[in-house]
Amino acid sequence: MKFLQNIVGAGRTGSAWRGGTMACLLAGASLTASAAVGIDYDAALTGEAGGNAFAPFYMMSNNGGRLTSASGVMLDVQAHHRLDRSRRFSYAFGIEALAGWQSAVDYERFTPMEDGSGVFGMISRNPSAIWLQQLYGQIKYRQVFLQAGMRQDTPRNINPRLSSGDLVRGVNARPIPGVWIGFIDFVDIPFTRGWVQIEGQVGYGKFTDKGWLENHFNYYTGHINTGSWYTYKRCYFRTKPSQPFSVTVGMQTAGVFGGTTSHYEQGRLVRSVKNSSSIKTFFNMFLPREGTGEGYYVGNSLGCWDIFLRYRLNDGSQVRAYHQRPFETGSGIGFLNGFDGLWGIEFNPSGALTLGGWIRGAVVEYIDTYNQSGPNHYDPADNPGTDFPSHTSGGDEYYNNQFYNSYANYGMSIGTPMLPGPIYNRDGFLGFTVNRLRGFHIAVEGDVSPAVSYRLMGGYRKGYGTINQPLTHTVDDASVMAEVDWRVHSVPGLALKGRVGFDAGSMLGDRFGVSVGVTYSGLFNIGKK
Q: What is the spatial distance between Cα 98 and Cα 115, in angstroms, rounded to a whole number?
């Protein structure tokens, strides 16, 4: 019982505990006229213009897939009721919708002819004129939450505004609708006296990008998977955060399974496979089990080991060093892929926001995915009678898979955007063409005055293709973005934003773009206080 009480928060025992629980649930479930429900809302109108087909890298990335084309005008309206973490029982809900116009991008497609031949042509594709970005409900009892719907969750340990992006689940792609359960925050582990805490969650979702995939695939070579499921889970352990030095370690894993995979060769459908999505498969994706035949393991799984070190200075400033080490096979899990991963340092000065300091936060990161293992797998147990005794674990192919789509949603990488997603492939290929690269990323934000803040981001990458299809010549990209926010104090809730960005290099092409936007935010209450 003591363990359960720690999981859901400090509680009572016996009938008193049961009575308190029942009273809490009844109080939380009933919305009376004496309890006001606060709703945060905002509406943003953004216009963007630029050359090339897509928006500059930093303007397009880590923005939930909201604005991707070079030019467009979008209205973004959202409203949220947030959790009250001071209460045992609390609930939250939210909705966000976008509407507008974005410029078209041409993609290559193969069309078969009656005589068995075929022709290639270009098809023009615009992002949807209107779509639902978020729609969710969430309940919390003590420290445990249950969430249903699609919500733009932020990474637990990566700064979503300054980092280049989390390697497993960041804020680059649109959210995936599903059901999630876990801890709302870190919870003390019993018998450790607060020196060790745990945090984690698990959930399943359903991809809704079938139309996007079918409209962007080339139908000539490769494969397309539609109707698949998504799963994500993580577990972190943290030492006592009140101490000057604190360590967080853990693992994230994600998976794709189910749906129907259609394979094409020379413009012909050669086979179509309906992948399992039974209850057993759901369980196997939670605790992986060996599959049969070519699959070896059910579904497509990936993840990363995470470690975060935080030191708090005497003046309250914080320095964080962190590393995310990706894996897709045993070589990555066993730390055999060299220097691969995201390496970062973040600095947050104390009191910068309240004192109008020029620097509120800064991040420097290095990303390396070059050393992923080769394309071959070999296990002696699968080849009885052979003379070669060693085990070879290869074929990482970060974010790619030979049976499922690559790790993307609506063409945008679900993990880091530093590996360019399928949306950039105008030849209609649905995979990552550059997942072996090395690069760095720098970002800083702060306040010029109490009303004006800024954010600067820049980086450079050199790409080498993939393990299975290395490039004959390397490609590179240098990207920069500058952003300024002006909060109009004479009109509370009104803010203006301007951004300018550019890319240069052979990876994404040369492009330049600007955007301006106006946002109005506020709070209204339903019911009486």
A: 44
